[in-house]
Amino acid sequence: MKRKRADRPGWRRVKKMGYTEKRVESEAFTGYAVRLTLDEVTEPAFMTVDGRELRVGDNGYCYLQYFPDGEAYAVTRMLDERGHTVQWYIDICREHGRDERGFLYYDDLYLDIVVLPDGAVILLDQDELDEALAEGAISAEDHRFACETADDLLAKIAAGQRNVFDYPDVFA
Q1: Which uninterrupted H or E stretch holds 134?
Q2: Alpha carbon of 74 to those of 40, 41, 81, 113, 167: distances in Å?
Q3: Is there a contact between 48 and 42 (Cβ–Cβ < 8 Å)?
Q4: Which pLDDT does position 77 carry in this prediction?
């Protein structure tokens, strides 16, 4: 399991970044929300998803991160410099919360789901999850939990339940 922080310390490509967080309690979303702005990067970041190369980070990009209460996942909605959604990236995690220093974190269980604006849904990193189990980095229970959580999310997404990942921009 990898503990990751919402403020993304040590991001090597990002020279200047904005960070805002807030607690949200609404009908559409309850939990913590974070807005990261990539104000200055040394070079763009790309990711190949479903055979397509996506630019997922560049000057002017914004990441809206959501940590929904009671859910075993965190969602990052990546927006380009014009405010168009590039992708929703869903990290399956054991838990999320605040660490002892007050930083928002999530305990990443390797398995991820990407949803593209055209409706494509892709499960990523099953191999990383399986490798983590084989190497003893996670337990068999964590492996089962990650797979069941992803399967449940995939079924909800396939059923058209966008409310499990497509949260409103609470910073607008």
Answers
A1: helix 126-134
A2: 25, 24, 22, 10, 11
A3: no
A4: 98
